[in-house]
Amino acid sequence: MTSIHSKSVPQSLIDFASSLADAASAVTMRHFRQPIDVETKADASPVTIADKQAELAIRALIEKTYPGHGVIGEEFPPVNPGSEFVWVIDPIDGTKSFITGRPLFGTLIALMWQGEAALGVIEHAALGERWIGATGHPTTFNGNPVRARACPNLVKSALMTSSPHYYKGTAVDAFERLRRSGGFVMYGTECMAYGLVASGFADIAIEAGMDIFDYLAAVPVIEGAGGIMTDWQGRRLDLTSGDQVIGVGDPRIHDEALSLLNA
Amino acid sequence: MTSIHSKSVPQSLIDFASSLADAASAVTMRHFRQPIDVETKADASPVTIADKQAELAIRALIEKTYPGHGVIGEEFPPVNPGSEFVWVIDPIDGTKSFITGRPLFGTLIALMWQGEAALGVIEHAALGERWIGATGHPTTFNGNPVRARACPNLVKSALMTSSPHYYKGTAVDAFERLRRSGGFVMYGTECMAYGLVASGFADIAIEAGMDIFDYLAAVPVIEGAGGIMTDWQGRRLDLTSGDQVIGVGDPRIHDEALSLLNA
Of B124, B163, B150, B206, nearest to A103 (Cα)? Predict the structure, then answer.
């Protein structure tokens, strides 16, 4: 679980990631709670001009500032995916929230450095709330360091996930075992769930049916607050990971949660 | 479905309801995302000092300004419940949201006038967002009139509800029939769901397992925006109503939704 990076992420890259979030939010807030056309993608998920324009705004800044960096985004084809530095972008996490006026939609920006999630931004434009995690730095919420809370066992844990309907096949029962072992579950928190775990307001953020865009940014956020985030088998998350992830604030419950998921 | 009130709610009562929301929000925001003790009530739901203090702040203002009015609140015993004017209060709707740092928690304030829900406030303190509905007035969002959107059939409807786990017994299948007939479902929007229907961003807000505190304020908000809100049998909602409610933005889909719920 130790990072391959002997040195921490340069502040210049953290500041640049913030500027990417600023650029995305300028786009999303022009469209939030405004009339907007909604298309349906091949996977039946919705997409809007705001998703596309926000991703293009981010891509333009990266291309201008770090033309050698790679970019993998949800809405357009990858660029330089084999680079030492690869940005992984979800311009609007929670498009259904976005199109229904729920202010929990977010923008997710991850930087993969030599294959590891080294920097992550969780941006909530409509709330003016931003979590940033980076290797070698404490995770911050709007600039202030945050810390996950203690939760020595699952019984009183607060668990968050997007929707029960994202769990398919054996994942249905796996999630049910974990949910019933905890205190209570909140649905529909979108990517803020990872931030709330990092800030010590919730204990577990779990998802299934996700793509790498949907979670890689959360890894440095949760780990920089003292937590741990892996796939359901306990493996570190990277560009090759699957659709099931779990982030916990207190590493002591990570094994217990994985045992229930894989029982 | 016509109101018994030949005249509209006086502006003085609307302004007073706003001042009640201000008083509740001053309390809730002192405690939101701060360390707080959580008790468990007899029904296993959580409650905090913020719930109690917010309700007491509202009750104190009512007692001082309208000592003859009744008050029914979630956390303390009823006062004058047979009065011509009865306030029905949920100081924190979504206490689980409140204690996990989710800004969607709300305060719900309804005024029953001769037994009918004549005035309702949906207040989101952490977001600075307030819907007000009142008989004889257009529903407003932060002071600006809003209108529900057209949705002539269920197929593309956006449906919102708190949690699938609030549905018990036959309500489980009833909700499933409705959910599968629509476009998509969002969980965990709390009482903002009613506001988003009123503002034309969603089409249906449905709940089961609720108490009168949890929904009476939403009736004037949705109806003042052109929608309709009833129990699952299509009856108007009042102090004697049960635990199942549905609010729709476009009255044309109300019958279709009820047919599915009662199939």
Answer: B124
Q: How much is the ipTM here?
A: 0.95
Cβ atoms B87, B70 nearer than 8 A: yes
Residues with Cβ within 8 Å of residue A180, at least 6 apart in sequence? none
* Nearest one of A130, A132, A83 to A110, comparing CA atoms: A132
> Which residues, 6+ apart, have CB-to-CB distance to B125 below 8 Å?
B24, B25, B28, B29, B32, B105, B106, B107
Nearest by CB to residue A199, choosing from B101, B199, B202, is: B101
What is the per-residue pLDDT across A192-203, written as a single tens digit (0 to 9) for each?
Answer: 999 999 999 999
Give B32's contacts (C-beta < 8 A, 6+ positions apart): B50, B98, B101, B103, B105, B125, B126
Inter-chain Cβ pairs, chain A and chain B, closer than 8 A:
70
CB contact under 8 A, B103 and A188: no
Pairing of strands B158-161, B204-207: parallel
Amino acid letter, B29 = M
Rounded Cα gap, residues B131 and B98, in angstroms: 19
List, for residues B156-211, the tens digit of each pLDDT value: 899 999 999 999 999 999 999 999 998 899 999 999 999 999 999 999 999 999 99
> For chain B, how are helix, strand and coil distributed in percent, rounded to 5?
35, 25, 40
Task: Please state the pTM of the whole predicted model.
Answer: 0.96
